[in-house]
Write a structure and sequence with these properties.
Layout: E1 4-7, H1 11-24, E2 27-32, H2 40-44, E3 47-50, H3 63-73, E4 77-79, H4 89-97, E5 101-102, H5 107-114, H6 116-125, H7 140-150, E6 154-158, E7 167-170, H8 173-191, E8 196-200, E9 205-214, E10 220-232, E11 235-241, H9 248-265, E12 269-278, E13 283-290, H10 297-304, H11 308-317, E14 331-338, E15 340-341, E16 347-348, E17 351-352, E18 355-357, E19 363-366, E20 373-374, E21 381-389, H12 392-404, E22 407-409, H13 415-422, H14 425-428, E23 446-451, E24 457-459, H15 480-490, E25 498-502, E26 504-510, E27 514-520, E28 526-527, E29 530-531, E30 538-540, E31 545-550, E32 556-561, E33 576-577, E34 582-583, E35 595-597, H16 603-607, E36 611-614, E37 621-628, H17 641-647, E38 650-652, E39 660-664, E40 684-689, E41 695-698, E42 701-705, E43 712-715, E44 719-721, E45 737-742, H18 745-767, E46 779-782, E47 788-793, E48 801-805, H19 812-815
Parallel strand pairs: 1-2, 1-4, 2-3, 4-5, 36-48, 37-45
Antiparallel strand pairs: 6-7, 6-8, 9-10, 9-12, 10-11, 11-14, 12-13, 14-21, 15-16, 17-20, 18-22, 19-21, 23-26, 23-35, 24-25, 25-32, 26-31, 27-30, 27-32, 28-29, 28-31, 33-34, 37-44, 38-39, 38-45, 39-42, 40-43, 41-42, 46-47, 47-48
Helix pairs in contact: 4-5, 7-8, 12-13, 15-18
């Protein structure tokens, strides 16, 4: 047996081969690029060598470089998996020339089956049925004649390559003319061979393939068949074995045809004979041979209890021996998870994955982990989810459950798309063909970002708590009152994640019906061109576009959706810490192309139709309640400073952000000339813990510390914003005027209590709308001392909506 094998591949298949090598006690050598440095195939290998920055021609397709690594590491054999060099006869020959075993079919067999048109000829000689078609075509005139002879529609196919590339359905001569040059050019560019031919196209066709394995003793084994009909753009996405809804006679005839073809070619190692099955005529036709391991080999392993990779390695080492002829047991299905956006024409999705969650009760093969970056340089397959059941119904149910548990955060994937497929009756009943996904566009409970605005990000409440001593600020919604109000209006959990929109909110599209609420600054929001009221639950339909303009008063608006946005919790919060590049959606502000899932609703939430209205307005002049301390005594500032602070109207500096709001005003009246041992300026003190809302005197400029600010510093803090007033910091806009009102701790508690009772009442009213009936009189909410706090008035309610009045969080501090 080999002592060391080099894996000339990446991603899922590289991890899969490593698993078998480890089981066999054979050391693995991985090759990787800088773009793949964090891949699990690198982490899992016994040895790993970088072969370039990323482009495949310079790395994974660089045969000479890979052979150089193999010789330097002492690898005795190379397994190329699927894709890249796996079917490259020239590479297999180079391996032999350099004394290295290529694990797979021989170069001559690769050449024999490498071109589809020549493979057709071999199949015809072996007596395997083939579709009506042509030999290689020299020009468009030959193509027109061949297509006319076969009868439209036809499939125009490149003879080289695979994976669905270089194939076009032509319904008539005009489409044939249109596609001929494009397919020829694409084939020449991708496969170095521009040869094309035509075959009769079958509309109600299924793609069924037989797994073959040949040993050097001359024996050919057939390990059942797989149905690979679920395809998008001629690329397989869901495969299963055994193929459903075909007769035993057809099944055995396919097996025999595959065996006969392999026997004729003297085939060795693993391979696949692909057939097209005409579901109407109940006939099958030869398509091609893949002289390599297939992506979907895992489901065959599940039902036959074999390891095809191990068999390939043993065969290449001359140690395979006799293979037990096993009968298949049960049904196995595989779903391929791709980094793509199915509802955006399967656009590839790239970027940093914040978290990857896979099902525990399934066979999962993947190369990704939390924090890995998906590059646009390679095939977008992230994982394979494989399940097995005693029956097909059981396997479909298991697949559905597994896909519902699969979550790839911060990039788009097809997991939800495939989950929705498992719910369709035609899939459950195996009424499938190669066109079944052509018009399948399920709704996705998500929000698509068309324009992310100035700085829109996912936040929650109360944010990241408990990590301030470690230097992680709380983050969260900067205007936490408006944020919490929106969740209360929607009946959401208090910690449901929403979007914080800064200055200009951007544009978003709903991919499914949703209930949403906008709070905070008025950004003149419009849903499909119609104005949207603030602080009110609003219904959106599939495809509705929500647009925001720039706010005139206030700085931040909040977009909340019923259920909340689905991003992973990091440090027990869904908030974004952009400076730390973690949390929320990819640890950053939103940008065009992002798709954020909305968590599903509970049954009670779906049934409720309650609307709640609440109205308050912002201006460009603010009064903020502050409490004196901790550094307000004569040691730091003169006694008259607090009065000066209260009498001054400060102006918000343009250089303000979530870390802090800078204020322009008179210089502080210092009681000392310097900071002593802490520094030259009198604002300096030794490091002391800050608080969000503390007014830090950094030099002579006051800064209100924001939720993304530092936890430790060294500046005098003469006053601190009352907790009920903190939300106003999030609405301070450059150029706004700010006045401070000194209040007592008792007054601060009063403001807080009133705010909390108001938010609870909003939520209670949503959950129990029957308590406030249409046309009723005002209901007075009172404190323990029976003083009115605010009133709920339903007298002018329309369509079940009702209003909450007499609570003004903007001006209340001025009235106490």
């Amino acid at each position: 047996m080999f002592k060391k094998v080099l894996i000339a591949n990446r991603g899922v298949i590289a991890v899969r081969i490593e698993r078998t090598l480890k089981k066999m006690g054979v050391k693995s050598v991985a090759v990787y690029t800088q773009a793949d440095a964090e891949s699990l195939h690198v982490a899992n290998a016994d040895e790993a060598f970088c072969i370039g920055e990323g482009p495949v021609k310079e790395s994974y397709l660089n045969a000479e470089l890979i052979l150089k690594v193999a010789k330097e590491t002492g690898a005795e054999a190379i397994h190329a998996g699927y894709g890249f060099l796996s079917e490259n006869a020239e590479f297999a020959s180079l391996c032999a020339d350099n004394g290295i075993v290529f694990i797979g079919p021989s170069p001559s067999q690769m050449k024999l089956f490498g071109l589809k048109h020549s493979a057709r000829e071999i199949a015809q000689k072996a007596g395997v049925p083939v579709l009506t078609g042509s030999s290689l075509l020299k020009n468009i005139d030959e193509a027109k004649a061949a297509a006319k002879s076969a009868g439209y529609p036809v499939m125009l196919k490149s003879t080289a390559g695979g994976g669905g590339i270089g194939m076009k359905i032509c319904e008539n001569e005009a489409e044939l003319i249109l596609n001929f040059e494009a397919v020829t050019r694409l084939a020449a560019s991708n496969f170095k061979d521009g040869g094309v031919f035509v075959e009769k196209y079958i509309k109600n066709a299924r793609h069924i393939e037989a797994q073959i394995f040949g040993s050097r003793s001359g024996k050919i084994y057939v390990f059942g068949e797989r149905d690979c009909s679920i395809q998008r753009r001629n690329q397989k996405v869901v495969e299963e074995t055994p193929a459903p809804d075909i007769s035993q006679d057809i099944r055995l005839a396919m097996h025999n045809a595959a065996k006969k073809l392999a026997k004729t070619a003297g085939y060795t190692s693993a391979g696949t004979v692909e057939f097209l099955y005409d579901a109407d005529e109940k006939k099958f036709y030869f398509l091609e041979v893949n002289a390599r391991l297939q992506v979907e080999h895992g489901i065959t392993e599940e039902v036959f209890g074999i390891d095809l990779v191990e068999m390939m390695i043993k065969e290449a080492a001359g140690e395979l021996g006799e293979i037990e002829n096993k009968e298949p047991q049960g049904v196995s299905i595989q779903a391929r998870i791709y980094a793509e956006d199915p509802l955006a024409d399967f656009r590839p999705s790239c970027g940093k994955i914040t978290k990857a969650v896979f099902p525990k009760n399934a066979r999962v093969e993947t190369w990704i982990s939390d924090g890995i970056v998906i590059s646009p340089l390679y095939d977008p397959m992230l994982a394979k989810i494989i399940v097995k059941g005693e029956t097909r119904d059981e396997a479909v149910l298991k697949l559905s459950q597994a896909l519902s548990e699969t979550k790839i955060y911060a990039i788009s994937s097809n997991a939800d798309y495939l989950f929705n497929l498992t719910l369709q009756d035609y899939y459950k009943n195996a009424q499938i063909n190669t066109s079944v996904l052509k018009n399948f566009f399920p709704k996705q409970n998500a929000l698509e970002v068309i324009d992310g605005g100035v700085q829109s990000a996912v936040q929650d409440y109360p944010g990241i708590t408990g990590y301030w001593p470690a230097g992680v600020p709380p983050c969260g919604a900067m205007d936490m009152f408006s944020f919490r109000l929106g969740n209360a209006v929607l009946g959401n959990p208090c910690d449901a994640a929403g979007l914080e929109l800064t200055l200009r909110g951007g544009t978003y599209k709903f991919r499914a019906p949703a209930l949403f609420c906008i709070t905070g600054a008025d950004m003149n929001a419009k849903l499909d061109g119609k104005p949207v009221a603030l602080n009110e639950a609003v219904e959106a339909d599939t495809g509705d576009v929500l647009e925001f303009e720039e706010s005139k008063c206030g700085m931040r608006a909040y977009l909340l959706a019923r259920g909340g946005f689905d991003v992973p919790k990091i440090l027990n919060s869904r908030s974004t810490f952009t400076l730390g590049a973690f949390g929320g959606y990819a640890g950053r502000a939103l940008r065009a192309g992002d798709v954020i899932d909305i968590l599903p609703l509970s049954r009670s939430q779906r049934q409720s139709k309650t609307k709640i209205r609440f109205s308050y307005s912002f201006s460009n002049s603010w009064t903020i309640g502050v409490i004196a301390g901790p550094h307000c005594d004569g040691e730091f500032l003169k006694e008259e400073f607090l009065q000066t602070l209260a009498d001054t109207k400060y102006k918000v500096h343009f250089n303000s952000s979530r870390t802090g709001v800078r204020l322009i005003g008179p210089a502080p009246q210092w009681a000392r000339t310097d900071g002593g041992q802490a520094g030259l300026h009198p604002s300096n003190i030794h490091d002391t813990a800050y608080a969000v809302g503390a007014l830090d005197l950094t030099g002579d400029m006051p800064i209100l510390l924001g939720p993304d600010g530092p936890s430790l510093g060294g500046f005098v803090c003469p006053v601190t914003v009352a907790s009920a007033e903190l939300w106003k910091l999030g609405q301070l806009k450059p150029g706004d005027k700010v006045s401070f009102k000194l209040i007592t701790l008792e007054q601060a508690d009063f403001l807080k209590e009133k705010q909390e009772k108001f938010l609870r009442a909003v939520k209670d009213a949503f959950q129990s709308p029957q308590d406030v009936s249409k046309g009723s009189q005002a209901v007075i909410m009172k404190t323990q001392n029976s003083e009115p706090q605010f009133s709920i008035n339903a007298a002018n309610a329309r369509d079940g909506a009702w209003a909450i009045l007499n609570y003004d969080p903007v001006r209340l501090v001025s009235e106490i």
